[in-house]
Write a structure and sequence with these properties.
The complex is a heterotetramer. By secondary structure, chain A is mainly alpha-helical. Helix content of chain A is 70%, strand content 0%. The model of chain A is unreliable at 397-403 (pLDDT under 50). By secondary structure, chain D is an all-alpha fold. Chain D is flat. The chains are: A mainly alpha, B mainly alpha, C mainly alpha, D mainly alpha.
Chain lengths: 403, 102, 170, 118
């Protein structure tokens, strides 16, 4: 098991200890080095994402996308960064200065922190802690905090309203997300990312596809992307919580959002698509990150596909979808998986996977049946004649208003 | 070396700051924040005693988990009460809610 | 001074400083943000006690849910003129005095206790505490009754809070 | 294990530095000429009127409340899931009962019409 990252770390450790530094200090120095390298790598990928996203959107909308700066416009994000850096930074009247400034920092840092637990290869991971899945949820709540702070500090009604709507959305969709996260934890009997990846001799998407779908949907909502982008619904609340942010501060929110999408994709790949698993990865560990990024970009592409194909849903529909559909479904799935898993103790892997998959498909089938019935009722309800708003010219309507 | 005394003194200080908040603040939500501080001090104590006295027994952690659940329930109901009071009396200052003090 | 002690002292100072600001700052939203810092410091304390499960749980529940619930409640019940007056009641000095006395009494009481200076015992090696906790919570000769009662408590809190806060349509 | 937490600690301290650096550069090179008109609150082309602090719907609080109750369940259910190997069928059913009690709460508020966004 030798991979370049760990051999370099060993080599550095040797050099440093030959200088007579203590063990603890070396760990800290190597840790700082690791953080700086990991974070810079992720941020560079983040800058490239701007180009990828814009190029792919353009294809969806039958345009070319950026194509002026550099070949195929690859240098466009660099130009964007320079532009953002030299833009004037405007602080709105009555803003809470400290909170206003610190909110975008927390927003991006929260996304960066998630990469500490993403396993890149069998031996390459920032921190293989035994509560990694909960760590992801915890860091996610820091992101929520950044949004509240941004909305509150801006001293703007629309920003505050946008922040409130976003937070209502984020915390609502966190419930099915957590329950969906519980399923792979339950199957792998561990919250450590490496253990979960190692347990996936059959990718979990083939064992519990429904959990993957629930996690995927709630992750899109967590990202605040279409169809769940009421947080920045331009037609309703101008731009949501970051309406007053300009220049690089807005840039940080934007970068955080893009990077969050990729991070979520990487987490879904790790939990359900086998993470770094792939052919020859045991012999050549450095292939791990390659596989992980291929899978992540596949999921990322799906997220973009959905983003640019669907219209926005209303806030009441969205919260209703979460509380009345996604949460009960996720809980039902969790119960079924828990009981089946215990019943199937001692059976062979193939039987286990087939029964689990069958159970998942059964739940999907039942859900579709229930949804059909509901849709029939709903269509009837919407189709019925309802009182419509009339112009207030008659006296009777005024009387109603006074009551 | 860190000894149990560190955590106990720290938790006692946190508890007393929370107590001051509960006794001195006017706003009901600020009082609830004080209670949260006190509950956190309690959890620190539970975990410190678990870690220093009996790390092989899980009882301390189970206790801490239950305190978490109780704290959440308390906050949920407490804040709901304040919102309801605010709706009726248009204030949540603790010294203005004096209906029982005729 | 060992590294652990330095980390402990820095965390303690930040946490207690944050706690003092929570109970003294006039602006309630600022108080809530300071509360978040304090809760974060407490989470680090759990980490120092090698209860890492509680570190993440603290962030998830206290910062991710309770603090946000509090901010929502503050926004629902705020009145601008209320901010003008004093944020503490008339007997605040008495409260401060009482807290101080209680703190001294507690520390004095602790210091007379023989177990006060217990040093860190080694953790049982290779034991996943989360696993042990999970087993203890549901095993019939463990803590299954508190476990189920906790869920009933949460149910009661949910229903009670919703009934209290819910605005009936007239 | 300890090294991993040291890494997380270092990451927590360093992660805000990257975005902070990105904010520092514009502070040095970007122009900075605020005037009252420029720093006016942006509100769809009209001047801002009244307090920023508009009254919010109680609905937001209710949803946060339901979230909090469901968030607490993870404290209990994650250890339960991690310890799944060592559990008997009976213990698993206890976990299921725990979930069912919470689901009962969800259905209660659903029937009450609390989950409608009106």
């Amino acid at each position: 098991m030798s991979d370049p990252v760990n051999s370099i770390a060993e080599w550095l450790r040797m050099i440093l200890s030959s200088w007579g530094l203590s063990e603890g200090l070396i760990t800290v120095i190597l840790g700082v080095l690791g953080v700086v390298i990991l974070a810079s790598f992720v941020l560079i990928v983040d800058i490239m994402l701007v180009w990828i996203e814009r190029k792919i959107v353009a294809r969806f909308q039958d345009r070319f996308g950026p194509n002026r700066v550099g070949p195929y416009g690859v240098l466009q994000p660099i130009a964007d960064v320079i532009k953002l850096l030299i833009k004037e930074d405007i602080m709105p009247n009555g803003a809470d200065k400290f909170i206003f400034n610190i909110a975008p920092i927390i927003a991006l840092a929260a996304v960066l922190l998630l990469w500490a637990v993403v396993p890149l290869a069998p031996t390459i991971i920032g921190a293989d802690i035994n509560v990694a899945v909960l760590y992801v949820v915890a860091i996610g709540s820091l992101g929520t905090l950044a949004i509240i702070m941004a909305g509150w500090a801006s001293n703007n009604k629309y920003a505050l309203l946008g922040a409130f709507r976003t937070v209502a959305l984020l915390i609502a969709y966190e419930v099915p997300m957590i329950i969906a996260l519980l399923v792979p934890v339950l199957l792998a009997r561990s919250m450590g990312m490496q253990t979960i990846v190692a347990a996936q001799s059959t990718w979990y998407i083939f064992v519990v596809p429904l959990a993957a779908v629930i996690l995927f949907i709630s992750s899109i909502a967590e990202l605040g992307r279409t169809p769940f982008d009421i947080s920045e619904a331009e037609s309703e609340i101008v731009a949501g919580f970051h309406i007053e942010y300009t220049g690089m501060k807005f840039g940080l929110f934007y970068a955080g959002e893009l990077l969050h999408a990729l991070t979520v994709s990487a987490l879904i790949s790790t939990l359900f698509l086998g993470g770094w698993r792939g052919p020859f990865v045991d012999q050549v560990p450095i292939l791990g990150p390659v596989y992980l990024f291929i899978k992540s970009f596949f999921v990322y592409y799906l997220i973009m596909w959905i983003r640019y194909s669907f219209p926005r849903v209303r806030i009441d529909q969205m919260l209703g979808f979460n509380w009345k559909f996604l949460t009960p479904l996720a809980l039902c799935l969790l119960i079924v998986v828990a009981i089946l898993d215990k019943l199937l103790v001692g059976t062979s892997q193939a039987v286990y996977v087939l029964v689990m998959l069958g159970a998942n498909l059964m739940i999907v089938w039942a859900t579709v049946l229930i949804l059909r019935k509901y849709a029939r009722v709903e269509r009837k309800r919407i189709g019925e004649e309802r009182p419509v708003a009339v112009p207030p010219d008659t006296e009777s309507s005024e009387l109603v208003g006074q009551e | 070396m860190i000894s149990l005394s560190y955590f106990l003194v720290f938790a006692a200080a946190l508890f007393c700051i929370g107590l001051y908040g509960v006794l001195a603040r006017k706003n009901a939500i600020a009082i609830l924040m004080g209670i949260e501080l006190m509950l956190n001090a309690v959890i620190i104590n539970l975990l410190a005693f678990w870690r220093f006295r009996s790390p092989e027994m899980i009882a301390g952690q189970v206790f801490a988990v239950i305190v978490f659940a109780v704290a959440a329930a308390e906050v949920a109901v407490g804040l709901a009460l304040f919102i309801s009071i605010y709706r009726r009396r248009n204030t949540i200052a603790a010294d203005e809610i004096d209906l029982l003090k005729w | 001074m060992t590294v652990l002690q330095v980390i402990f002292l820095i965390t303690a100072v930040v946490t207690l400083g944050g706690a003092v600001l929570v109970v003294t700052v006039r602006n309630l939203i600022h108080a809530a943000l300071w509360l978040i810092l304090t809760l974060f410091g407490v989470a680090v304390m759990y980490g120092l006690l090698s209860a890492t499960f509680f570190t993440v749980i603290q962030v998830v529940i206290y910062i991710g849910a309770i603090a946000i619930l509090m901010i929502f409640a503050i926004m629902l019940t705020r009145r601008v003129k209320q901010e003008a007056g004093s944020s503490v009641n008339k007997g605040w000095w008495l409260a401060g005095l009482m807290s101080l006395v209680l703190f001294t009494a507690l520390v004095w009481m602790f210091s007379t206790w023989s177990g006060f200076q217990t040093t860190l015992p080694v953790m049982p090696a290779n034991v996943d505490m989360v696993k042990v906790l999970g087993t203890a919570l549901v095993s019939p000769n463990g803590y299954v009754i508190p476990f189920e009662i906790a869920s009933v408590l949460l149910l009661a809190a949910l229903i009670g809070a919703v009934v209290v806060a819910w605005e009936r349509k007239s | 294990m300890l090294n991993d937490w040291i890494f997380i600690g270092i990451f927590l301290l360093l992660a805000p530095i990257f975005p902070a650096l990105a904010l520092l550069i514009p502070r040095l090179i970007a122009p900075r000429k605020p005037n009252p008109l420029k720093t006016e609150t942006y509100e769809c082309g009209i001047e801002t009127y009244g307090e920023t602090w508009v009254q919010f719907k109680v609905q937001y609080y209710i949803f946060a409340l339901v979230f909090l109750i469901f968030d607490i369940e993870i404290v209990f259910l994650f250890p339960w899931a991690v310890a799944f190997d060592q559990l008997s069928m009976f213990a698993v059913l206890e976990g299921v009962l725990f979930i069912m009690i919470l689901v009962a709460g969800l259905f209660y508020i659903w029937r009450k019409g609390v989950l409608e966004w009106v």
